[in-house]
Amino acid sequence: MPSPLRHPAALQGLAVLIALGLVIGPLGPLLWAVLRGDAITQLSEPRVALVFWRSVWMAALSAGLAVAVGLPLAILAYRTRIWGAELLAMLMPLTLLLPPLLMAQGWNGLTGWDGLWASVFVLGMCYAPLPALLASRALRTQSAAAHETALMLGGRKLALREMVRTARPAVILGASLAFLFAITDFAVPDYMAALGETFGVYPGHVYTHFRDDDYWSGARAAAPLVLLCGLVLYLGLWARDHWGAEEVGSERQAQSMDWGRQTALTSLIGWSLLSLTLLAPLVRIVYELGVAGPEAPGTWSTRASESVQAALDRGREDIGRSFRNGAMAGGLALLLAPALAHLLVRTKGWCGRSIMTLTALPLLAPGVGYGMGAISFANRPGWSNFYQGTGLVVLVFAGRFLPIAVFLLAERFRSVPRSRDDAAVLHGLSYPRRLIQVFVAPQASAWLLAATLVVVFAVRELDLAILLPGANQSAAVRYFNALHFARDGFVAAFGLLIAILLFLPVMAYAAWTSLCRRDD
Amino acid sequence: MRATLAPLLLALAAWTIPACGGPEHDLVVYASHDQEHSEPIIQMFEELTGLTVHAQYDVEQNKTVGLVNRIRAEAGNPYADVFWNNEIAHTIRLKEAGLTQPAESEATRTMPEEFRDSEGHWVGFAARARVIMYSPELLAARGAKLPPNILDMSASAYAGHGGLARPLTGTTLTHFAVLSQKLGRERVLQWLHNSRETDLSYTNGNATVMRRVCQNDFPWCLTDTDDAAAAVANGYPMQVVYPNQTENLRGTLLIPNTVCMISGAKNPEAAQQFIDFLVSPEVEEYLAKSRSKQIPLNPKVTLNLPPEDLPLPYRDYEVLAVDWEATAAELDVVQDEFQKLFIQ
To answer: Nearest residue of B to residue A395 by CA position?
Structure first.
């Protein structure tokens, strides 16, 4: 008797049930607050409404900035021949590995910028890789015919416009994700609101309410944010469906565009954009390794080497634990994401979008709310091994960051021609085999990248690390603890160490694919 | 594909399953103190007693309230045995919520009465003082003066040259709750309101405001002694003043670390051993000589440090007398008001 999981509905249903279980367990009270209409009543207080709408437009500007930087960066890195394009493409995601607060400190140290606009700028730079990464596949798989026709009829200008059109759906989704991350970020505005006119943001309001004795108070405060994020995501998915033409037919992919005499200029633009998102603050962070006051003993290099040594000595075990937890969450995402991504690609209309929005709720909810929900769900007599162990951590981390993997994978699955899937059906392939052979295998790099992103975000996650017993002794807790207690050199060294370790697999993979391409 | 997937899944399972049960331990300690110092102290305790401790740490953005929240959320089935808080007000709030239990012993009774609970639920040790840290060079360059006391910080002559953390978390929240309890809520709220009209800078924490002085954004700040000590340890030529609160309300505010046993703790004996160890002169001496220069409260501690290295309360400066229970009750009320003032 054939396994029921051979059918798409069964496997996808199972994946959706697991994903929804990860949502409803910890987020029940928060969802209830949203459904009860607390989102609206919260905003009836003028002060709260003011802070809320400020957060909305700040996040919208940050997302716009992320697109303004991320899209040209993606086009230059992935589809044009500029100097060091491969290196540019490889370095671009590195920004996502660094905590936004570290970036804020880097920019503040470099420029002295403070205040609301500095906060918008930093968040825009931090999340620029999101639209860029989501757009990258669409750009790489653009039909050669469309590109060549545009180049012939309207030159580079029209070809660029065609690339933007091709990338638009993915960019919209990337912008939505950048908006979600920016509007829920508390650390950067909190740090930047120091000099001049101070300003509050809505996550600050949510955070202070979660400190109250009553979880419901935090859940009610978070309700408008969760509702808005859900709406933005739904609209992002709608826009993506509405404008995203499925790639059909052409198996031949467009070549990278040559800039001719403008290569130097475009290379300069590309590397300047990367400097904004990564290199400039990174230089400052490296400088922080050994920076000290005029009365500090030793030289910059001796202090820097002491900082690195301290980071290795004190943080090694925490890094190991964080990576193990992140890797397990990434592994779980590897299993769940393909079926969900396929569901997202193949289920048209409001139903598919609603399922995805619901599945994404852990990402939309404040980490502290998700963590508190996980405690009330899992801290029960007789469950102590589960509560204090890694199992809960893996489930919660995977639940929170799975949507990132699903969205990235869905973008890649979209470029698989429908005809190939239909042929597999006609050939009698079971659903799991179809999913693996037609979708996952050709997109193995995206599959691994999606899991890597889950690992990255899990390693960076702070709120859940504080709240879950199995996650507490982690790189994130040690990093932010040292940040608070002004161990500046240690913080820079430890932050760089984490980023380098996270980036090593990405670099190794990029080098390997580059070698394979040369062999071909 | 199947051939590559199977070993991957097997490897993941082999890595995952052994870790799922959680660590074996004799005691669970929640510590909101600086991990760089609390970690070696916990290790010292493990070596001394042979017990295994599962330690959980807190960080700046959730500053004490992360673990405090967790203790509240876990109330039905407590996981922590001991809470080592790096301030006092939230410990008392936990007591008021019925989440702590008495843990008095001969060792805890050696601490001064003003720094321990009359019912034995908590005991204070290794304090920090709320001080004004300044850069003499920048102060002179700007032709500015230091405020003579805390409440004068917002006067126009001083405000443009200084800063402090927003009183929403940590020791600054506790400090303003003390002021509110002593001087009256209306007066403190009005002061905060006025200070926002002047150029007094507000940052997200004591370490940040200290850093701002080090990077010459302004010449002085209100912060904790451990942050000032960190600035000096990082080679910045900073000086410290132990201020009175107002002209009439004399004394510097000391905020001790506190430790308490959680109600329903699963390992009460080990918890009591740990509490006794924390308040021992050896631990206070270790913390006093550490980079954060915590101020010892145990009269048995004998430090051979000169006053310029570590000024001591009562000997080198006056200490503000505080009713901690009343302060914790006040904090409950004023923190909402502070939030309304600062989150807008």
So the answer is: B20
Is the same domain home to B235 and B333? yes
Residue A190 touches chain B, beta carbons under 8 Å: yes
The secondary structure of A332-381, three-state, reads HHHHHHHHHHHHHHHCCHHHHHHHHHHHCHHHHCCHHHHHHHHHHHHCCC
- Residue from A288, A332, A390 to probe the interface with B (highest B Cβ count within 10 Å): A390
Domain hosting B103: range is 24-127+255-312
* Residue ranges per structural domain of chain A: 28-254+262-288, 301-520
Per the structure, how many domains does chain B have? 2
Does any CB of chain B come closer than 8 Å to the CB of residue A484?
yes
CA–CA gap between residue A406 and residue A339 (Å, rounded) = 9
Residue B224 forms beta bridges with which residues? B130
Domains A28-254+262-288 and A301-520 share a fold: yes
CATH of A301-520, one of 1.10.3720.10, 3.40.50.11540, 3.10.310.10, 3.40.50.720: 1.10.3720.10
Per-residue tens of pLDDT for chain B, all 344 residues = 445 555 656 666 665 555 555 667 999 999 998 888 899 999 999 999 999 999 999 875 544 458 888 898 899 999 999 999 999 998 999 999 999 999 999 999 999 999 999 999 999 999 999 999 999 999 999 999 999 999 999 998 999 899 999 898 889 999 999 999 999 999 999 999 998 888 899 888 898 899 899 989 999 999 999 999 999 999 999 999 999 999 889 999 999 999 999 999 999 999 999 999 999 999 999 999 988 899 999 988 887 777 778 898 988 999 999 999 999 999 989 988 998 888 77
Chain A residues with CB inside 8 Å of B67's CB?
466
DSSP string, A162-183: HHHHHHHHHHHHHHHHHHHHHH
Note whether A194 contacts B204, CB cutoff 8 Å.
yes
**Residue B204 falls within a domain, yes or no?**
yes
Distant-in-sequence, close-in-space partners of B199: CB < 8 Å, separation ≥ 6:
B159, B160
Q: Do B21 and A385 touch (CB under 8 A)?
A: yes
The reported pTM is 0.85
How does pLDDT run across B249-280, given as a tens digit for each residue? 999 999 999 999 999 999 999 999 999 999 99
Chain B residues lying within 8 Å of A292, measured CB to CB: 234-236
Q: Using the 8-state DSSP alphabet, how is residue A254 labeled? A: P
B205 neighbourhood in chain A, CB within 8 Å: 484
Q: What angle do CA B100, B105, B111 make, to 5 degrees?
A: 90
Q: Tokens at residue A61, please?
A: 């500007």
Q: Which CATH number does the domain A28-254+262-288 belong to among 1.10.3720.10, 3.40.640.10, 3.30.1050.10, 3.30.420.10?
A: 1.10.3720.10
Check whether residue B167 and residue B183 sit in a common domain. Answer: yes
Among candidates A187, A207, A485 on the partner chain, residue whose Cβ is nearest the Cβ of B207: A485
Predicted complex ipTM: 0.84
Looking at the structure, tell me whether residues B150 and B249 fall in a common domain. Answer: yes
